[in-house]
Amino acid sequence: MRNIILLCFLSLCFLGGCSTSNDTNVSLNLKFEDFNQSKELIGKKIQYDSILNPRKILLKNDYLIVSTDGSKNLLHLLDVNGLEYIQSKGVQGQGPGEIRSMIWELDRGIDENSFWAYDLNSKIFYEYDLDSKSKYAVRNIRQDKDWFLGFSINLIDENKFISNVTRDNFKYAIFDSLGNRLDSFGPWAGAGQKVVDEDTGYLLLGLNQGQIDYNFNNKILSHSRLRFELLEINNLENENTISIYGPKSYEVKYDVFDSNGMPTANVDSAIPMGYSDVFTGENSVFAVYIGKTNSTITSSGEMSRTIFEFSLEGKPLSHFTTNYPIKSICVDEKAKKIYAITDDKDPGIAVFEY
Q: Percent of the chain beyond pLDDT 90?
């Protein structure tokens, strides 16, 4: 019975995909023909002996920062101008300034000369000095108290962090460095709907897995969904949210089952996946669109060759196809270059001019 109630709630408050709007939220149905332009990007790929299993890429000042899965040094800095390898950081270990597990996310932060790396497994957020030769974090912040239920971290102001939260009535919560909850953003339930209980909040977080990227200058937080087609553009300043569904606009079919006493959603394997990454720029949002089932990805050996560009207001601008399969991106809007981690047998960094 509980599963039936959860399924009905999800259909009503969250997966409808209708073109509707109110004072703070707008839902749009995207179609391929909505983009102003379609363009093929022919990029150049560079491989680095020191960068094995690259996972995420970040642009900050004149540096490209690449995180890797593996051991020893988990962060690598490149000169964005010539793409020369500069140094490694992010020593893995149990000592001071060392990363205990792995890097899940990278964040630009708000300080001009530093960036952040998030270890989800250990619930620790690490800050690194860009100009220092040290491989170790200059400080780290542990998720304590209510913040422990956060599953992402982006620094939005001095001593203010936003996280995607579980077992909650809201999608996001804002905390200070001590773990005190300061505010909430993005209620799961719409106007006139029932408050979400802990079980449903847990299920919704799992169903809404995906990459999150924040731009401190324009206060835009973008959240791309991995398991189905949804891209959200959240303005934290005016609290407006634009939800973009499509472009294939299929019905999301899923079952709810019990996993260690908590409800978990199992999305039908025939459902195409949504997005593998998102980048929030000064003027546009870029997202790596998948649009394939898991079986198709397995048989083809690659996840995506497609990048969508949207305005900050959700208008479809560009539909790019790339000559290399890709999984993670960052963008230099002034130079009109997209930097991507390739998703192939010998992954490297690809540069596309758009």
A: 89
